[in-house]
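As a warm-up, study this chain.
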Amino acid sequence: MDQRGHTIVTLEERRDALGHHVSLRGRLDFHTVPDLRMVLHSIVDDGSDDLLLDLAECEIGDATGFGVIVECLRRARRASRTFCIVDADPRTHRLLRRARLAHLVGPAPLTVTAAVG
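Now compare it with the structure written out below.
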């Protein structure tokens, strides 16, 4: 937690033969997204290999938290990068289904040429 009592989100990166793995841990909400947004944007914009987002230990706290995931998808599409959510908690799965983005969750990278919401 930070000084104001807000949860801190941590980001971990690694690269391997499958692509660029980004793991998020913590709660994505109005308080944590602003700083995280810039880091995620630079990761998407500066790379060229498959982007694999792991949200297994990440909680989507509000619409701002979910929005940063959708922004990553859209930026990846504009950069012609493959984007896949490799793991997510049950609530995030439900949110993705409601937004018609459930096809992005999978064990292998999927291309982002499908229409968004």
